[in-house]
Amino acid sequence: MIYNSFLKRHFRKNIVYIFFIVLTPKCLIAQTDPAFKPISADIIKLSSKVLDEDRKIYIYIPPVDTLLPDKRYPVLYVLDGDNHFSLIAEYCRYLSRKDVNVMPEIIIVGIPNKNRTRDLTPTNSIIDYDGKPDTSSNSRFKSSGGGNNFLQFIGAELIPYVDAHYKTQPFKIFAGHSFGGITTINCLLTQPDMFSAYIAISPSFWWDKEYLLSLADEKLKNDRDINKMIFYSDADEGMSESTFHTNLLKFDSIVIQRKIVGLDHKYAYYPEDTHMTEPVKAYYDALRFIFRQWDLPLTDLKSLNATVVKQHYQQLSQRYGYSVTPPEVNVHNIAMYLIAQYGALDNAISLLEMNTQNYPASATAFSQLGDAYLKKGDRSKAVICYKKALALKPGLQNVKAKLAGASENQ
């Protein structure tokens, strides 16, 4: 986090550190202490014509931003929603907090299973993990092969429903584990434009005599442009020679050797984890990979101003395909840091002016900008800001007092 990095790099002497603690808002030097609220979700029933059945769906929505009531959010769709929905929702909720700020707030759509083998396998096959046919009367593989039909359900029915009923951005992530992993890979290979980023945790490439490895070899050509992100991983699923591990190395080799334009990829191996514990680490690492450029990079702190911050968020907007707005609280904290540490009042004012432009309904933004103008000695501009803050929120007694003080001797 950029604020912690500020402290580690720039506050070597205790006396300076103590001075900074006195002058700086708490959230710049430590985590905030928000009231605990358990994850809650909308639970909907979607009648699918594609699947000819009703499907239960879990949907987590970030808290309403009162300053940006029309704010829209990226969406993460996760398979095995009955197992992984709450885990991912908690990760996203924490990592998007204002005092963490390494990813955006995001809508989570969990897709619980109804017939997992049917929906999460791309072909019909009765060949098991050991390469032997399961011809028993109760073979769990008999219903397999509905994966492409399931992707049609997601693309033609689920995504349109979510887009119609929730405030979504175009950036979408598709995440899955094991059979869910080959489902996300199959989507990337056959319908890459359905999602912007893909997560495949221990994908079951063994399925149907490594069908998807052959498909990857066919589809991932170096003359293709695939402007997507993909994170894939495996764990200790039978030592280093396990089918999961060797097959994922084959897939990774295809991705690396083809050097596909625009395909941003990362492979992670978790030898100390099992097939079922791996998602706890892998989903976190996948989110950090996809949004690794989200926070402001460390730079020459004296040069931080509105131009630098705007440029960073313009780059994020281009990367993720929607307009990304700098968080009001974080911009204010950077401005206060610049004043306390460098006396860089003009740079701080440029940041606070940007806040009033991005958050025109925020009385706090105008009040804080008024404080900065007053500190500079520009009473007339301070008065304008205080009046604007009071117009937005008339009951602010502290702002009324500031306005009275700034108006004297004008």
Q: How does this model look, in words?
A:
The structure is a single chain. With 410 residues, this protein is α/β, with parallel strands linked by helices. It has a domain of 255 residues: Rossmann fold (3-Layer(aba) Sandwich), CATH 3.40.50.1820. The protein contains 16 helices and 8 strands. Helix 14 runs antiparallel to helix 15 and helix 15 runs antiparallel to helix 16. It starts with a helix and ends with a helix. The relative contact order is 0.09.
Secondary structure topology:
Elements: H1 2-10, H2 14-23, H3 26-29, E1 42-48, E2 53-60, E3 73-79, H4 81-95, E4 107-111, H5 116-119, H6 147-165, E5 168-177, H7 179-190, E6 197-201, H8 207-219, E7 229-235, H9 243-258, E8 264-270, H10 278-290, H11 306-320, H12 328-342, H13 345-358, H14 363-376, H15 379-392, H16 397-407
Parallel strand pairs: 3-4, 3-5, 5-6, 6-7, 7-8
Antiparallel strand pairs: 1-2, 2-4
Helix pairs in contact: 4-10, 7-8, 8-9, 12-13, 13-14, 14-15, 15-16
Organism: Chitinophaga hostae
TPR repeats: 363-396
Region (Disordered): 122-143
